[in-house]
DNA sequence: GGGGATATGTCAGTGATGTTGACATATCCC
DNA sequence: GGGATATGTCAACATCACTGACATATCCCC
């Protein structure tokens, strides 16, 4: 016996499950925090922040990138970009060359020093991801949860899980 | 025929693959940006920011939370917490009650209004995750990539992929 | 019951990163 | 030659983090 409400067929692309996916929401938050936390420790020693990391990363990955393209990727204003980019240029981690066809453009390239730092930071983040992948069995939602949980510092994981599993205390 | 270097057995828990996992690094960055971007638009209408969202979320999820426990979860200073918490209290989204056993504690609870906002924001993020899960086939690394790519705004995804797939241009 | 530890609140200053708005310069292209 | 485009820069401001210092209330132990 079902009410009409319970019986109504779900729209094709509803994407709203019956229950909020609190676990995944929180796992994503914690996983990202640790994901950016790794590079943060290194960057501090260079007097750089996350903003510098993002710029260096995308310049390293897309050598010859224009300012406009970089702004497109980062979705920040040119004033915000300019501040960190200027520091990367001054400290010799990135260099500019005039565009070949369009000389208004400033094509961005990593210097050897910049390349080295970018690779170093990528290696750090890769390690965390690689470990997470190793620890992940993978199959649908349960698999995604396991993957993101594995992205969190092992020492933190139990606490996080405990905090998220209060579902059973409101009598459900 | 392998050199000694190539033959050396990998340490048990190395977690460093031969190649950096650039795709996953970038997908994680973009996915998180969109994940927090959804709530941002709503929060703006209330004069709140991401910091308020995080506090409201964890108070809603863990009613009766103490300040100390909240600081532990968020890993920020009490001064940082206090500013946003005060606003949530003043605007009536969170309320404090003295601890039952320890009256020094300020137990935090969402008000009905706070609960409503928290649920609304969770619903938004749940929708994105749910859609991503639906679009994900899941099996090991390839599955994780697909999952995170699906977390990115559909309109953005092709661009992102294009920018990340420059691997083949350096002759490899 | 006095006193140190604990939980929380608050003031003041600073830093990193983002924003808007306005304007300058160099180059491109019709 | 002149408008559009790519970039650089100055100034002011918002958010959210930090450190350091200090105040208050309550707990708990000797």
TrEMBL record, chains A, B:
Q: Which GO terms describe its biological process?
A: response to stress
> Could you say which residues form the signal peptide?
none
Keyword DNA-binding found:
yes
Offer an example of a GO molecular function term for this protein.
DNA binding
- UniProt keyword Glycoprotein present: no
All copies of the HTH marR-type domain together span: 18-153
Q: Which InterPro entries match?
A: HTH_MarR-typ (IPR000835), MarR/SlyA-like (IPR039422), Tscrpt_reg_MarR-type_CS (IPR023187), WH-like_DNA-bd_sf (IPR036388), WH_DNA-bd_sf (IPR036390)
What UniProt keywords apply to this chain's record, in alphabetical order? DNA-binding, Transcription, Transcription regulation
Name under which the protein is recorded:
HTH marR-type domain-containing protein
The species this protein belongs to is: Alsobacter metallidurans
